[in-house]
Write the structure tokens for this entry.
Amino acid sequence: MSDKLEIAAVARDDLGKGASRRLRRNADMIPAIIYGAGKDPQPLSIIRKDLEKCLESEAFFSQVIDVNVDGDVQKAILKDLQRHPAKDRVMHADFLRTDEKVALKVNIPIHFINEESCRGVKLEGGIIEHQALEIELLCLPSAIPEYLEVDMADVGLGDSVHLSDVILPAGVESVALSYGEDHDEAIATVIAPRGLKSDEDADDGAAPAAGEVPSAQDEAGED
């Protein structure tokens, strides 16, 4: 588990899009909001460099964070980030307060291990295609895993790893699988390289070798 995650914020009373725009004109600050857990929403301002530093940590996107609002530490998760459509710049951050007794939905990153030694890659010439890089889970805040590990070592060419193959910690549930087996989607597949597929297709449609006698069905098709 990562070290405790925390960020400082200042409560602000000016509301609305105009107030947020004015705050963003100050390149050092970012508008934000914290809400949930039966309490009123509270608009915030956060020092830009502090937030950008926190965003370098993968855990900041899924783990419980201590949001220090003028000395009042509130437990929350990062619920949403709004980015500038043309620039790599955060415009607004949403934090959702957590309640230790209430389960919540969180997206947790997948760490695929042993990809280089994967049987379908190393011995059978395939490549790994990822269908998902995170999984939505339902659990109490105290049970949120930092990441989920998926071992690709024994996955063969043409085989897939599904949601049901992922080992979850106690007290943690896959949201998709809670809807039934029809939602057991693949998260990674070992596929044949594009060039290899083309060669195999060409072999399937190749003409008979010299001296080979065409079948009666082939002759009928020529009439």
Summary: The chain has a mean pLDDT of 88. The chain has two domains: 5-97, 104-202.
